[in-house]
Write a structure and sequence with these properties.
three-stranded antiparallel beta sheet, globular, Arc Repressor Mutant, subunit A, 189 residues, alpha+beta, three-stranded mixed beta sheet
């Protein structure tokens, strides 16, 4: 089990894995491997597994994965990076009649409600989710500045600590989003 730490001083803040003298302990979390797909991974298999997961989720919830919802999900799966609604429209327009923005937003609303897509707030974009975590599970998004890929790691305890700190000030949190930008291991290599 890895330990996440956050250290804050007057001039800097840093976060990382492991233990660091003087750091403030925040939370333990299990980090699934791999967080980012390897550049040479079998993308067809990856997409097929994700579509199977989406079909299972919809079947369990008695929801319909309509053709447009499927197409939007497939467009998001195509690159492992977040896409804005208009980027999704451009992707779909390559193979089908250009859908109206409202159609894409409705599909995205459905996919988010069924935990198949996350919204990346800082990018105003959407990311396919292939993890089987519940709506109450909070994740941290690791956004690579190099390739644009986004990984997700569990962050329930971290988010709870942040929400608790906010509540101590009299603030009532409504939404907790943890987005961390940096460089993935593949881009560092």
């Amino acid at each position: 089990m890895d330990c996440v730490f956050l250290s804050v001083s007057k001039n800097r803040a840093s976060a990382g894995m492991g233990e660091w003298p003087g750091s403030h302990y925040i939370a333990h979390m299990n980090v699934p491997k791999p967080t980012f797909p390897a550049p040479g991974h079998d993308h067809d298999r990856c997409t097929a597994d994700a579509m199977h997961h989406a079909e299972q989720v919809c079947a369990r919830r008695a929801q319909k994965l309509t053709p447009i919802r499927r197409q939007v999900f497939e467009a998001l799966l195509a690159s492992h990076r977040p896409l804005g609604a208009y980027e999704i429209i451009e992707e779909l327009a390559k193979t089908v009649t250009r859908p109206a923005p409202i159609t894409i937003y409705r599909a995205l609303d459905f996919l988010m409600a069924n935990e198949l897509v996350h919204r990346i707030e800082s990018r105003n974009a959407f990311l396919a989710c292939v993890h089987d975590h519940g709506a109450a599970s909070l994740v941290a998004f690791l956004i690579c500045d190099g390739c644009g890929s986004v990984g997700e790691v569990p962050a329930t305890q971290l988010a709870q600590s942040l929400n608790d700190a906010a509540r101590l000030t009299g603030f009532t949190p409504k939404l907790s989003v943890v987005e961390i930008t940096g460089t993935c291991a593949h881009c560092q290599a």
